[in-house]
Amino acid sequence: MTSTSENSFNPGKGPGSPVGVALLGYGTVGSEVLRLMTEYAGELEHRIGGPLVLKGVAVSDTSKPRAGVAPELLTEDAFALIARDDVDIVVEVIGGIDYARQVVLAALKAGKSVVTANKALVAAHSAELDDAAEASNVDLYYEAAVAAAIPVVGPLRRSLAGDQIQSVMGIVNGTTNFILDAMDSTGANYDDMLAEATRLGYAEADPTADVEGHDAASKAAILASLAFHTRVTIDDVYCEGISSITAGDIDAAKQAGHTIKLLAICEKITDKDGNQAISARVHPTLIPRDHPLASVNKSFNAVFVEAEAAGRLMFYGNGAGGAPTASAVLGDVVGAARNKVHGGRAPGASTYANLPIADFGDTPTRYHVDMEVVDRVGVLAELASLFSDRGISLRTIRQEEVGEHARLIVVTHSALESDLHATVEALKDMPVVKEINSVIRLERD
Ligand code: HSE
Prior knowledge:
This protein has helices at about 5, 30-40, 40-50, 80-85, 100-110, 120-135, 155-160, 175-185, 190-200, 210, 215-230, 245-255, 320-340, 380-390, 415-430, and strands at about 20-25, 50-60, 75, 90, 115, 140, 165-170, 240, 260-270, 275-290, 300-305, 310-315, 365, 365-375, 395-400, 405-410, 415, 435-440. Helices cover about 35% and strands about 25% of the residues. Mean pLDDT is about 95; it is low at about 1-5. It has 3 domains: about 5-150 and about 320-340, 3-Layer(aba) Sandwich (Rossmann fold), CATH 3.40.50.720; about 155-320, 2-Layer Sandwich (Dihydrodipicolinate Reductase, domain 2), CATH 3.30.360; about 360-440, ACT domain (Alpha-Beta Plaits), CATH 3.30.70.260. It is built from 15 helices and 18 strands. Strands 7, 8, 9, 10, 11, 12, 14, 15, 16 and 18 form a 10-stranded mixed β-sheet that branches. Strands 3-2-1-4-5-6 form a 6-stranded parallel β-sheet, sandwiched between helices. A two-stranded antiparallel sheet has the order 13-17. Bound molecules: L-homoserine (HSE). L-homoserine binds near residues 173, 174, 175, 210 and 320. The site of L-homoserine has 7 residues, from helix 8.
């Protein structure tokens, strides 16, 4: 009888062996993957140690013309394609969750390595997918799921595997970065810049997943899982989008030397009793204009990592688009193909730390509160005492006249989110507070 450990060793097909690839999906990314795979076939063969051979392309409708792919390779039956003995690697670039989950699980269970660009799938079902990959002793790669061409999954999983990561902060959605950057540089309002993002093809016809932060939250779940060796799913990520950010907020941020970015923030936090937990959150965030992430403009993405020994690192580049995403997909295909040829398996997801996920209320944050208050003696002291009653220290207070009222912009030091939130709720009930214009969180320098 064969032992489990013998079963779990992949001896490899041997140098020079062909590696069969099934492509599921032939949209913007799938067609670019095939173009690169075809154009650089010779070089890829050298890098892998055997040729990549396309065995089929699964699409929803084979009657539509598909440039760049031989018609006899097209099929509507993804499951039959996956099951073929000569398919070693399945590339999933369909998107969506339910059907993608079915085909990816079918591939893993059939002993095929999988490369996917599907952040929503990985962020929702990582445990099930990792277990299936582990059970079949195959690879599951998803570099393209976070910030497309920017290598960040690989560095977190391999290059930084010897370090202690303290935080990962990323601009991981190009649409929202385009909108916020355009608001910052032109003074325009949110609706006009969303319309511009749509006109230029950054925003989808339904931009909800981007502007409400859901796309970034999927990426935050993946980044937090990798950084902290803990299973983090999208349900663990606190999420707020950018649709309530006004031109006034951007202007106030500018006057204080800040800019507003939609950040995915993943941190290891330690409470007053020394217990560690993970905070993963997505929300509009004020950052100083000299912070490395502040210079990430247009639709670019960047991921800023702080690690104990490595210090501060920033990964920057194209976070979306057919070719950049295909670059990351093909990099993973090469990695999976090398293992198919030479044997072995890439390390699977590491979740040994199994840290708890912090309640959002227990997360240390900082607030930037923009409000209009009655302009008379004692109001400032009254407001300041509301913060100090909850142990919240104020960092700066800026005041300007607005008609008969005063506009006050208060920036706090770090305090628990629940205390900051309760303080703002109490501010709303104070007769001297006429309007809370906005409350935006702020990250340290
Ligand atoms: N829609 C995303 C963005 C790209 O705007 O960055 C895919 O995650």
